[in-house]
Amino acid sequence: MPNLNQPRNVIPGFGLTMGFSLFYLGLVFLIPVAGLLIFTTTMSWADFWSAISHPQVVASYKLSFGASLIGALINLFFGMLVAWVLVRYRFPGKRIVDALVDLPFALPTAVAGIALVTLYASTGWVGQHLDVFGIRVAYTQLGVVVALTYIGLPFVVRTVQPVLEDLEAEFEEVSASLGASRFTTVRRVILPALLPAALTGFALAFARALGEYGSVVFISGNLPYRTEITPLLIVTKIEQFDYQGAAAIGTVMLLAAFLLLLLINGLQWWASRRH
Amino acid sequence: MSLTNTSSSLSNSSIEKRWRRATEEPAWLRLSLILIALAFLGLFLVLPLIVVLYSAFSQGLSAWQAAVTEPDALAAIRLTLLVVIIVVPANMVFGVATAWAVAKFEFRGKSVLISLIDMPFAISPVVVGLIFVVMFGSQGWLGPWLYEHDLKILYAVPGIVIVIIFGTLPFIARELIPLMQQQGKEEEEASLTLGANGWKTFWYVTLPNIKWGLIYGVILCNARAMGEFGAVAVVSGRIRGETNTMPLHIEVLYNEYMFTAAFAVSSLLTGLALVTIAIKSAVKWNDERRQRIAAA
Fold first, then answer.
1. Of B124, B2, B41, which Cα lies nearest the Cα of A68?
2. B248 touches A82 (CB < 8 A)
3. CA distance A248 to A52
4. Which of residues 3-42 of A touch B (CB under 8 A)?
5. Quick check: A36 and B130 CB within 8 A?
6. Are B52 and A115 within 8 A, CB to CB?
7. Which residues in chain B touch residue A91, judged by CB atoms under 8 angstroms apart?
8. pLDDT tens across A20-30, in order?
9. Which of A248-257, B26-35, B231-240 is the least confident region?
10. What would the pLDDT profile of A174-212 be if each residue is shown by its tens digit?
11. How far apart are CA B56 and CA B65, in angstroms?
12. Is the pLDDT score of B249 beyond 90?
């Protein structure tokens, strides 16, 4: 029986738009992804396990996950600081700074890669000053962290900024009038309100960093066991026509991406409930 | 009388001072936070930008011009433009159709659909390339069949197009879905009740409303499509002058120590990135102004 309380939707085109959308998603996304997963299942468990647990591959997981985590943590801290400064303070050039935050999102990763290695090489504008202290960035694991920090930079800023803008001043005033110091207000009132958004941004930056290829390969030097990230290993295997090895490692990366997306969806659900 | 007045104004100002101390930060702290934030952004955002532009033009304008008009560079630019002419309209139709279905209708599994659209964003570009190598490669699912029928997808334009479609799938849809959800469907309903058909309603009511979001989505999709690297590197085979897009051409030049030329081609994509974020800001400011006017 039709629900009489709900008027009939007069808007047309549901079948057409939904049908096209699902057809398109299926054709360019779902079927190809399923193709990779099924291809991986044609391997024996022993082959799969030896492909994903080879010491060189394990070393690349450690670097990829470790450097992505450090980069995302750097972005968590500085992202909240940048969001705070952009929302709460006035300074000249603020709008330009605000716009520039999106640059790593719009700049091709290969361009970012050659720009970063040029800056951080031991003769570069930044690298030569670090060289004095014996700090090497280009062609080391530190370089991987720098590249992954760069490409993850917009996420925490852009998730925290709108929440901070919508935060009612009343809560802070109540906290202050109850005698809390500014530091206590920030720690006990503002930070908890920003937490879900900040963690969402952190997870997005981490997910993006984990799969990143273009900006890293120029600055990392790609030494096996030392500065070789997991996506590079997949490229190497494809170039050697080792499809099975590549598919096994690619499946691991794909599962990591799915888990991170689940986590991000959970965080967003948590954030929307808090509002 | 005057004495009490003075004392009350004094205590007023001291209350105000204490109040300000409790609801905002002291000036020195504000200034240091601004400076730390700007130093971080200067190091990570501005310096890379300057190094690209400086290196591109350090040998003079004629060297820059020579690098971007040399035959391999022109071939890379042509291929990149060809690819985005296919990719951007395809993802635009997908984005508009999906946003229409999601924003104007209630159906089960809507949140699953939205999460699905987000997914290409979290998948490594290299894995995107791998997915299509497994699909179309010589040892892949369709490889033997394609070989028999003399069809080339991998190491050719179709392969490049499809990985870029996959990689930039979410961008236009992601811009339009929240925008169209926020605008609701009253205006479309009014138009339809007044007798306009669906296409007319979309063309004259919906499209003007989503114009700016759509423009930004298209520009972002275009910038990301032109700059896509990892996925294209896997499927293009890097055939110089044939299957090298601009980012791959940059890589080739850089690896051959032709740094000025690499940065010259990079400066074109950097200009495109700057235009992209300028349009995003313009759309955002326009939105904020309209909201202020609506609120007033």
1. B124
2. no
3. 6
4. 9-14, 16-18, 20-21, 24-25, 28-30, 32-33, 35-36, 39
5. yes
6. yes
7. 34
8. 999 999 999 99
9. B231-240
10. 888 888 888 888 888 899 999 999 999 999 999 999 999
11. 10
12. yes
User: Chain A 104-143, CB below 8 Å of chain B: which residues?
Assistant: 104, 106-112, 114-116, 118-119, 124-126
Q: Are A149 and B130 inside 8 Å of each other by CB? A: no
Contact criterion met (CB below 8 Å) for B132 and A31: no
The Cα–Cα gap between B232 and B126 comes to 8
Q: pLDDT tens digits for A233-259? A: 999 999 999 999 999 999 999 999 999
Q: What is the mean pLDDT of residues A42-52?
A: 95
Which 128-187 residues of chain B touch chain A by CB within 8 A? 129-135, 137-141, 162, 165-166, 169, 185
CA separation for the pair B172, B188 (Å, rounded): 21
Cβ partners under 8 Å of residue B275, min gap 6: B219
Using CA atoms, how far apart are residues A205 and A71, in angstroms rounded to an integer? Answer: 8
Contact B270, B247 (CB under 8 A): no
> Is A65 in contact with B168 (CB distance < 8 Å)?
no
A-chain residues within 8 Å CB-CB of B40? 78, 81-82
**Residues within 8 A of B (CB atoms), A 39-98 only:** 39, 78, 81-82, 84-86, 89, 91, 95, 97-98
Q: Which residue has the tokens 């992804």?
A: A33
- State residue B29 phi and psi, 5-degree precision: -70, -45
pLDDT in tens, B108-144: 999 889 989 988 888 999 999 999 999 998 888 998 8
Give Cβ neighbours of residue A141 (< 8 Å, ≥ 6 apart): A63, A67, A220, A226, A227
Which residue in the set B23, B107, B134 is minimally distant from A243, CB to CB? Answer: B134
Tell whether A242 is within 8 A of chain B (Cβ): no
Q: Is the CB of residue B124 less than 8 Å away from at least one CB of chain A?
A: yes
Residue A188's CB: how many other CB atoms inside 10 A?
11
Q: Tokens 């051959």 map to which residue? A: B256
pTM to 2 decimal places: 0.91
Give the Cα separation of B227 and B155 in Å (integer). 18
ipTM of the complex: 0.92
pLDDT in tens, B57-81: 999 999 999 999 999 999 999 999 9
Quick one: pLDDT at residue B7? Answer: 46
